[in-house]
Amino acid sequence: MKNLKNTEVKILNRIIIFVFISISLFAQTGEREFRKTYYPSGQIKTEGEYIDGKADGVLKEFYTSGRVWKEWSFVNGKEEGVSKIYFEDGLLSIEWTFHNGLKDGLARWYYENGKLWSEQNYLVGLLEGITKTYYKTGELQGEWLYQNG
Question: pLDDT exceeding 90 applies to what percent of the chain?
Fold first, then answer.
């Protein structure tokens, strides 16, 4: 009797896993497409994945040198998560956090020497809280308080 129950549990677990996988696969009904564009020189200009014509995943834009210029994170055509812009030498220039297509969270801007230039907080697309700016030496330049932008 005990072996029968173990067998039934194993079968039930397999059915549940099968149903879960089936639902997950059918939920992705959109047409996936990986796109690339190129400069006239043949060097890559952009690349990224789209679902039903909407950006979905990390989209990259490149300098004519081939180095990454921008990395944008998208979900269903809207920016989501951390997006970054780089100087041509590869150092980070700007990094933003997005939610549902709007800046939401911490944003940082950097000088070309890699030092922090500014920190800003966003809430649903509007500046919110303390924004700080710094000199190239790293010394604090100023602070500003934003409420509702």
Answer: 78
51-93 per-position pLDDT tens digit: 999 999 999 999 999 999 999 999 999 999 999 999 999 999 9
Handedness of CA 124, 119, 98, 36 (dihedral sign): positive
Distance CA 91, CA 56 (A): 25
CATH classification for the domain delimited by 31-146, as one of 3.40.50.300, 3.40.50.1220, 3.90.930.1, 3.40.50.2300 = 3.90.930.1
Question: Which of 64, 84, 71, 77 lies closest to 30, judged by CA?
Answer: 77
* Cβ contact 99:80 at 8 Å: yes
Per domain, the residue ranges of the chain are: 1-30, 31-146
Q: Which residues is 140 bridged to in the sheet?
A: 134
Rounded to 5 degrees, what are φ and ψ at 143? -135, 140
| β-pair type (140-146, 129-134) | antiparallel
Binning pLDDT at 50, 70 and 90, where does residue 25 land?
very low
| Predicted local distance difference test score (pLDDT) of residue 15 | 62
Helix (H) or strand (E) holding 11: helix 2-27
CA distance 76 to 44: 24
